[in-house]
Amino acid sequence: MNDSLKTLLVIAFLIVIVWNLGAGLYYLLVDRGQTKRTVNALTRRIALSVALIALVAIGIYTGWIKPHGIGG
């Protein structure tokens, strides 16, 4: 897996996480507590965040991702 694909995968995860955060805010304002859409959106955001952290940790452990210091 090349570096640009790894970066694209992480950015895609971040975009979906922010999308679910925005959806949770929207449902919170629109539904006014009548449905569970806010809870579902925020639950998906937490699950995606945990999955992203686990994916990065596994990538570092297996050597697919090579961490580096600040500035390179």
UniProtKB/TrEMBL annotation:
Pfam families: DUF2909. Keywords: Membrane, Transmembrane, Transmembrane helix. It comes from the Bacteria. The chain crosses the membrane at residues 6-30, 42-64. InterPro entries: DUF2909. This is Twin transmembrane helix small protein. It comes from Stenotrophomonas oahuensis.
